[in-house]
């Protein structure tokens, strides 16, 4: 642990100092006959503001962060791949296939 702290200059530099590196999604996929038929994404946070011992533990993103994750993913996915996404009333991202 001391080596990591030294490398990261007391945890003040590196990827773990940026909140967006602590946001992700958990995918839910359904297949029929080997073909993807349904895809949902559950936005989660990984504890950026939590103490170091709790960082990386996933928990459901709140409404604001869910919207930020959705806006980012739907924007880059539409621009680069033409993918359409919607955000349902439960905070789940539905991906059109």
Write a concise synopsis of the structure shown.
With 97 residues, the chain is an alpha+beta fold. It has helices at 2-7, 63-81; strands at 23-32, 35-45, 59-60, 85-87, 93-95.
Describe the structure.
The model has no long low-confidence stretch (mean pLDDT 90). The chain has one domain. The protein contains two helices and five strands. The protein has 97 residues and is of the alpha+beta class. A hairpin with a 5-residue loop joins strand 4 and strand 5. Strands 1, 2, 3, 4 and 5 form a five-stranded antiparallel sheet that branches.
Give the helices and strands, then pairings:
Blueprint: H1 2-7, E1 23-32, E2 35-45, E3 59-60, H2 63-81, E4 85-87, E5 93-95
Antiparallel strand pairs: 1-2, 2-3, 2-5, 4-5
List keywords for this structure.
elongated; five-stranded antiparallel sheet; alpha+beta; 5 strands; 2 helices; 97 residues
Computed Rg: 17 Å
- Please describe the biggest sheet, giving its number of strands, its sense, and whether it closes into a barrel: 5 strands, antiparallel
Order of helices and strands: HEEEHEE
Low-confidence stretches are: none
Structural class: alpha+beta
Q: Span from first to last CA? A: 44 Å
Helix content: 25-40%
Apparent shape: elongated
- SS strand fraction: 25-35%
What's the total count of β strands?
A: 5
| Mean pLDDT value | 90
